[in-house]
Amino acid sequence: MEIVFQVTERSIDKRGNLLHIPEIEVETYWNNLYEEPEAVIELYHTHGTSELKTNMNIERLPSGKMSVNELVLSVAMLAFNTLRLIGQTALTCTEELPYEHSFVRKRLRKVIDDLIRVGCKFVSHALRWSLKLWVKDPWSGIHQGLRSHSCPLTVIMEKL
Q1: Cβ 26 vs Cβ 41: under 8 Å
Q2: Fewer CB in a 10 Å sphere around the end CB: N or C, the chain?
């Protein structure tokens, strides 16, 4: 077991007043990681920040029962991974993208805004229901790629 220390000495308080006696804060991190001390401290500081919790809006779990929270986290994890997969695969369909991109991944909020929330309506004709997408949607090329199987996203969606 390794102990990493971070010692902070403050001579000015948060309002900018000088302190006669400096304030000393000591943080200790007990771990069994084989990392540099700076990396261990950074890992502990980012410990509670998760894109899963913030993007799926589950910063606070809904119940005091662990089994309910486990179910909520499992469903959120499935939705998170599916959205991440859709976003990454949509970036591989470069010919259908409405803009040039230089980034390696899409944020989940952008995936939801661009690919999930689309203008559409259900239409009933000749005893068949169909989903009509908005023709002027800039992302309609990606959706057309799903229909024509030219985009690898179709294969992924069929597996789900």
Answers
A1: no
A2: N
Tokens of 140: 């309609």
Q: Do 75 and 96 sit in the same domain of this protein?
A: yes
Residue range of the domain that includes 106: 55-159
End-to-end CA distance of the chain: 42
Domains held by the chain: number = 2
pLDDT per residue as tens digits for the range 60-107: 888 889 999 899 988 988 888 888 877 777 777 766 677 766 666 667
Strands (E), the chain: 2-12, 18-31, 120-125, 128-133
Q: To 10 degrees, the CA torsion angle through 135, 139, 143, 144?
A: 60
